[in-house]
Design a protein that fits this description.
By secondary structure, the chain is an alpha+beta fold. Helices cover 27% and strands 37% of the residues. It has 4 helices and 10 strands; from the N terminus they run H-H-E-H-E-E-E-E-E-E-E-E-H-E.
Length: 176
Amino acid sequence: MLKKLLAALGLALMLAVFYLMLLMGIGSDASSPQQAQSLPPSASVPAISSNLKDLSAQFGADVPYISLLGEGALNDITSHGVTGRLLTWQDDSGFTVSCIRPAALASCIRYDHLAVSGAAGWSIAGYPVLLAQDAGEACVYYSTDDAAYALYLPSGGVPALESLLSHLSFVVANNQ
């Protein structure tokens, strides 16, 4: 009994210290350069491109896609004091893939007008997905250690999105 109480007390103390360190680190100038260094440089690729492989290399993480015919944009963003990178790719069918690094910025790629309906019961690359939908629109969200993803289909609903995702491929980033 005493061991369990001490273990619980130790865990609570550890969480409190972690929370305090997190609070003191948010917004400090010391943490920003470390986050910026983890992102690949963005100077060599234009912000808008029809070459997903180039955008993926600059993004620095794997990017899912259905078709390489489309157009994308890559932007550096800052939200809540965290610097990140946002890649958005839309193919000719309207299917849109949004990727953001680090994964802590996942709220930046959320489709607020869609109602989250829970786990979809399937996965992408072994990662469980969260499903959101409204009328004919559908979106799945998932995240890896490196990035967070939103895969959005503006029409056809969940069955069309699920069918489309069965053809999903990945551009593997060249992490150096």
